[in-house]
Structures are given as C-alpha cells and as structure tokens.
C-alpha cells in the first residue's frame, strides 16, 4: 500500500503544479491512512478471534465510526496545546547519550521496528524519571508506566452486546494499590504509519468509563508514535478531541518532552484527588489485562 501511495504521488507531482500537487497529496495521505486503519482493524479482529476466548461478540471500531459510536467530535478550536517557556526545558544529557548509543547500534541492524521501540522506551521512561526528580515544588507521585496491556469493555450497540477490545503498548497509571486508574495510552506505530484512530478508540473507552464512574475529570490523553513523529491527542470533558503533532528529528524534541511532562503532572493531580468510590471496572466493565 505504501508503494502504491508513493507511485500515485509521483504521478501527481509530474502532471500537476505545486499548489495542486500539495492539495492532492494531503487528501491522498488522509485516504490511505483511513484504508490502512481499516485493514489493520480487520486483520487484528481475525487474530483476536483465533487467539482469545469467545465473548458475545468481539469488535474493533472502524475509523469512521469512532466519533458517532462514542459521541465525540473534533475540537474546532484546536485545543490548548501551547507550552510556556518554563515548560520548554533542555533535553536531559542522559537521554541524549542513550539515543546516540541506540542510533549507533541501529546502524548495524536491519530491524527498524526494534530500534523504534527501544527509542520509545528510552524517551518515555526517562521523561517520567526526569519529571519525578524535578517536581519538588509540585510532586509527581503515584504515577507509573506499564507496558503491553489488553483493554476491553462491554458495549451495547444496535446489534446487541459487544466487547470492544484492543492492545495498548504503554499506559500511564496513577493511584494506590487496588485503586489504580489510567489517563494516558500509547500505541507504538510502524515507521511512517501514523494513524490515530485506534488510540482514539481506547481513549473514548476510558473517557466513557470515567464518566460512568462519576469522575469529575473525564479527560484522557493518547499518543501514537514511531519515536520520530509524535501525534498527541486529548479528549476533554466536553467530548471534544484535539491533536498536536511534533517531529522529534526535526527539532521538536523539547516540545515532545514538555507535553509528556504536562501529561504526567495531570495524572499526578488526578491521583491526589482520588476519593473512595466505585471503580471504573465496576461501573462500566472497562478492564485492562496483561498481554504476557
């Protein structure tokens, strides 16, 4: 599919002027992104049915149905992603060294997927560690990163009871033992295949569960990244979602790290405000299980 996309773009650039070519290329990228997402949904649904115990029905939401299913829509204002100068801190020297080492090793490896996941591990965990160490004035506490979780939730649709499900590569958890909740989910992407529909579905599931459980703050963050392109999402209390994209390799690493720190601080604030009450699982059936 990527080869076909490149061929179409090459043909357009040959036969159209620059402005028309740019416009057509944007539309092509959008349509190919939708097609890739639908293909991945169908492929993963087949894999899930083969390897997972049967439920009343298993379902992955197709890209076009995410909004109508959960009654969410794009934020026409673009959302609040602006970063202050105090949030834009230098890249930690330790992280720079780790990434240089990974790049050095990658020169002799053909497995770019492994390289991307290693870079993502390094950036996420180092960013959280740095946020914890530097948060003396506003402590970031009881916040943890976990990896490789299945997410599922029962959902009553027009066709009857279904189980929405998926796989999350990273999730940020807050709270104490037995009372942990998440407000941030991350999906690792193959290089050059950045589509946010899947992670938006997971965010909408968590958003719905938080509302069912009576949480005052139902906002959820998401991220889909190949460790180069970082597509952040936020689903707010008003059911509006916004997207902000940064390119690590094009001088926007500071913005990536600042946005991560803001998300970590938000989770910490939720942890500090947690009170006794029903869990998300009790009120909505939302469940995370280990993929190991």
The count of strands amounts to 9
Q: Please summarize the sheet with the most strands.
A: 9 strands, mixed
Helix content: 40-55%
The unreliable regions are 47-57
Question: What's the total helix number?
Answer: 8
Radius of gyration: 20 Å
Mean pLDDT comes to 80
Q: How many structural domains does the protein architecture include?
A: 2
Helix/strand-derived class? alpha/beta
Gap between N and C termini: 31 Å
The string of secondary-structure elements, in order, is HHEHEHHEEEHEEEHHE
Shape: globular
Give the amount of beta strand, in percent. Answer: 15-25%
Describe the structure.
- A hairpin with a 4-residue loop joins strand 7 (229-235) and strand 8.
- Mean pLDDT is 80; it is low at 47-57.
- The longest helix is centred in the first third of the chain and has 34 residues, at 18-51.
- The protein has 292 residues and is of the alpha/beta class.
- Strands 1, 2, 3, 4, 5, 6, 7, 8 and 9 form a nine-stranded mixed β-sheet that branches.
- The chain has eight helices and nine strands.
- It has helices at 2-15, 18-51, 66-70, 93-106, 112-133, 197-212, 253-273, 280-284; strands at residues 58-59, 73-74, 143-157, 160-174, 181-188, 220-225, 229-235, 240-247, 287-290.
- Helix 1 packs antiparallel against helix 2, helix 4 runs antiparallel to helix 5 and helix 5 (112-133) crosses helix 7 (253-273).
- The chain has two domains: 2-51; 73-290, no CATH class.
């Amino acid at each position: 599919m990527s080869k076909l996309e490149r061929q179409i773009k090459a043909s357009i650039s040959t036969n159209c002027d620059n402005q028309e070519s740019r416009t057509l290329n944007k539309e092509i990228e959008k349509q190919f992104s939708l097609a890739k997402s639908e293909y991945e949904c169908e492929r993963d649904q087949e894999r899930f049915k083969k390897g997972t115990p049967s439920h009343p029905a298993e379902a992955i939401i197709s890209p076009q149905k995410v909004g109508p299913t959960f009654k969410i829509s794009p934020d026409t204002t673009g959302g609040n992603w602006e970063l202050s100068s105090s949030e834009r801190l230098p890249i930690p020297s330790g992280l720079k060294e780790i990434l240089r080492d990974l790049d050095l090793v990658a020169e002799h490896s053909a497995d770019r997927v492994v390289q991307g996941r290693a870079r993502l591990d390094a950036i996420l965990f180092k960013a959280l560690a740095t946020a914890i160490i530097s948060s003396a004035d506003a402590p970031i506490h009881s916040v943890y990163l976990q990896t490789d979780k299945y997410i599922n939730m029962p959902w009553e649709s027009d066709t009857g009871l279904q189980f929405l499900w998926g796989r999350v590569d990273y999730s940020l958890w807050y709270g104490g033992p037995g009372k942990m909740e998440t407000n941030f989910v991350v999906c690792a992407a193959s290089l050059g295949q950045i589509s946010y529909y899947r992670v938006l579905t997971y965010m909408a599931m968590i958003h719905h569960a938080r509302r069912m459980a009576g949480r005052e703050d139902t906002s959820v963050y998401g991220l889909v990244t190949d460790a180069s392109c970082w597509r952040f999402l936020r689903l707010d209390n008003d059911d509006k979602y916004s997207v902000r994209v940064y390119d690590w390799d094009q001088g926007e690493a500071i913005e990536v790290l600042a946005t991560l720190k803001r998300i970590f601080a938000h989770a910490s604030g939720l942890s500090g405000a947690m009170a006794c009450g029903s869990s998300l699982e009790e009120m909505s059936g939302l469940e995370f299980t280990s993929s190991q």
